[in-house]
Design a protein that fits this description.
The protein has 18 helices and 6 strands. The protein is an alpha+beta fold. Strands 1, 2, 3, 4, 5 and 6 form a 6-stranded antiparallel beta sheet that branches. It is found in: Endomembrane system.
């Protein structure tokens, strides 16, 4: 659980670092989703967001900075439970600010923090642990540990059960179609793409792995070996995904999520190799810090105080509070399982809308439909066709180079990061047509602000649509103008 805490905190910091490069574009009123548009089209009345308190990117920067400091505290295990709660609140707030760039990994990261609040993942390998005696028992069981294990299993069960298309269940062509999507194709995917039989085998392997492997987490015998098998297979599985498909932080979040399943035998092996090395470094670090500690001690004024309290919590009261906590976790776990079953079972067992407010409020809502029920066949690339005042056509998606309709060598490289790729995916949907002018005008403004940029008269956001067909064939790309805007009306 300590490794789980450290990994989750590291992912949080990585996520903040990536998102911080688009403070204005994704989180301010000068970007692609101003607050009034968010509240009109993407807001649920039960949601909350501190990030929606202002449309200034400077305010977003302050909130990002606070989130980073708290994530470091979580990483170090400093006031762990408080750091977990604050990190969860700030993460929910951030995700609610711009749902157009969210993906499945964000749901999992949010849930890891939620369940982590009820776990003692700061009990060892933490700053807090320095003030407490070494635990006499390093195994732990509670409703929260059950919830954590069930949550991991539910992720894979649901994504498998939602994969109901023939590409997954009978044809075995799902991975072929996934690697046909140039927007997510990585170099590793290019290597295996020409081998249809290999892709067919990997498709069925993925489907049955997600469907059946989680059962080993609940076997009552050989627990340590089953857990090692699960963690090892999932590490290989998600590293393989990261080498073949452009999924952003999705694979890192999934790698972090299974670390809490490592059995004692794995931790003993790690301690024998890592802890002695850390202990050898400790005297050298202490020697370097000694002069600074002495200087700080000279600056400090001696202050003595004593706080006494006659308030004591009896053993019976502690047991009552523990029982209330366990009952709360069990209730939430049942709610989460019901939510996940909603898209799988028949209408008779569907969760009614009046019961969904809790999921929206604390963001335990989740959906694991990765490439489900089937893989998209629609593919293509964006062209930002800008017309200059002297009649030339430039492609802003290629840094103002002369316009060409030729397919780029790597479509994936046209995206700054996975957040922009997800935004562009949502940009295509007719239901999201309201968001198109804001992106178009944003592009015009940032182009105009670049030194030496050619003055523009008009911009068309063009999508070159290419549909993937069986047997390594595609349709002829067709030009679709999704949005157009004039520089004068910006």
């Amino acid at each position: 659980m300590a490794l789980l805490r450290v990994a989750v905190a590291a992912v949080l910091l990585t996520d903040l670092a990536i998102r911080s490069t688009d403070l204005e574009a994704h989180y301010s009123n000068m970007g692609v989703l101003p607050l009034q548009v968010l509240f009109e089209h993407n807001w649920n009345p039960y949601e909350f967001s501190l990030h929606s308190s202002s449309g200034l990117w400077q305010v977003q920067a302050v909130l990002f900075g606070i989130a980073a400091v708290v994530a470091v505290a979580l990483l170090l295990g400093y006031h762990t439970r408080l750091a977990t709660a604050v990190s969860w609140v700030l993460l929910v707030s951030l995700q609610n600010r711009n749902p157009l760039i969210s993906q499945g990994g964000d749901d999992l990261l949010r849930m890891l923090l939620f369940w982590g609040f009820f776990l003692p993942w700061g009990r060892v390998y933490s700053w807090d642990a320095r003030k407490r005696p070494v635990p006499t028992e390093l195994t732990y069981f509670s409703a929260a540990t059950v919830a954590y294990v069930v949550q991991i299993a539910v992720v894979y069960w649901c994504t498998a059960l939602l994969k109901s298309g023939a590409e997954w269940t009978t044809e075995g062509t799902a991975l072929y179609y996934a690697l046909s999507l140039d927007q997510v194709l990585m170099p590793g995917g290019k290597l295996i793409y020409p081998y249809p039989e290999l892709l067919r085998f990997l498709t069925f392997a993925t489907y049955y792995l997600e469907k059946f492997l989680p059962f080993v987490l609940f076997l009552p015998f050989g627990v340590r070996w089953w857990r090692l098998l699960f963690v090892g297979v999932m590490f290989g599985f998600h590293i393989g995904i990261s080498l073949t498909l452009f999924v952003g932080l999705f694979f890192l979040i999934n790698l972090a999520s299974v670390l809490g399943l490592l059995p004692p035998v794995a931790m003993d092996w790690l301690e024998r190799r890592l802890v002695p090395a850390a202990q050898q470094l400790r005297p050298h670090v202490a020697a370097r810090l000694a002069p600074w500690r002495a200087r700080l001690a000279g600056w400090q004024r001696p202050v003595s105080f004593q706080i006494s309290s006659s308030m004591e919590v009896s053993a019976g009261m502690r047991q009552l509070l523990r029982s209330v906590r366990e009952g709360l976790v069990v209730g939430v776990l049942v709610y989460v399982c019901w939510w996940n079953l909603d898209n799988i079972v028949n209408q008779r067992w569907t969760m009614k809308e009046p019961l969904r407010w809790l999921g929206y409020l604390v963001r335990i809502d989740q959906h694991w439909g990765m490439f489900a029920p089937a893989v998209f066949k629609d593919d293509g690339w964006y062209i930002l066709d800008a017309t200059t005042t002297d009649g030339r056509h430039l492609d802003l998606n290629r840094r103002g180079q002369p316009l060409t309709y030729d397919k780029p060598e790597s479509v994936m490289r046209l995206f700054k990061n996975d957040r922009w790729r997800k935004y562009s995916e949502n940009y295509l949907f007719v239901s999201n047509a309201y968001m198109r002018p804001y992106y178009c005008n944003y592009l015009l403004r940032i182009w105009r602000e670049q030194p030496g940029s050619s003055p523009l008269r008009h911009l068309d956001v063009v999508y070159m649509k290419e549909i993937s067909l069986p047997n390594y064939k595609t349709t002829k790309p067709t030009r679709e103008v999704l949005c157009g805007c004039d520089a004068a009306s910006e």
